[in-house]
Amino acid sequence: MVYQPxxxxxxxxxxxxxxxxxxxxxxLIDQNILDKIVRFADLKPSDLxxxxxxxxxxxxxxxxxKAQVIAIEKxxxxxxxxxxxxxxxxxxxxxxxxxxxxxxxxxxxxxxxxNITTPILTKLVGYANIQSIxxxxxxxxxxxxxxxxxxxxxxxxxxxxxxHAMLKKxxxxxxxxxxxxxxxxxxxxxxxxHQKYRIKRAEEFFQIIRKCFQQRRxxxxxxxxxxxxxxxxxxxxxxxxxxNVSLDEWLTFFQKIxxxxxxx
Length: 264
Fold this sequence. Notes:
It contains eleven helices and nine strands. The protein is of the alpha/beta class. The longest helix is centred in the C-terminal third of the chain and has 13 residues, at 202-214.
């Protein structure tokens, strides 16, 4: 029960470690939140769960009651300590270097390190064997991921994740639910991966979107005027900026442009 503050601190003292800020080590100390994460992940006994950043193992203990669990933990001390939990397989690895295709069909559950949230998500959505990703992220990042067109939070990350997954809102988690207490609040959300959108030249498609969001205050027709036929840009986008265009509209634009209308 390392979610209890006194027991967590005693456990850390026993290991002779302190939470490492550069690894975003902020540990949950709220049993209610841990239970809500497990329920939200919607697990069955036959599921394989890949837990990223298991730390002391508070969430691991809860997950093991519901499914088979493999924990990925970069910190060597915590990885060794996790071996105390029966039936838990532990990988002492950097998650960005793990090949998830070696696992059978699985669900990912994670309190993601906030400093590398985007690289991790970008990596995970590329694996066909991952069914869902239930994650806790910084509230500000969650706002971006779950945002809608015509809002300030709508971004290239939003569009990228919408392309790969159905996004589901979860619940707010106060900064007071962690030890040590971080400077930001968090939010739990879920991505259910799908194959709904699969286009040729997908990388080129997202390069175009990222280019527009890098100059998000400019109209799209201005940003892309050297890349595409200007009349076509005017007809499709008018005076709109990137945050005003939905994923389906971006896809329609990209797929309907005849090759001769590229000015590259």
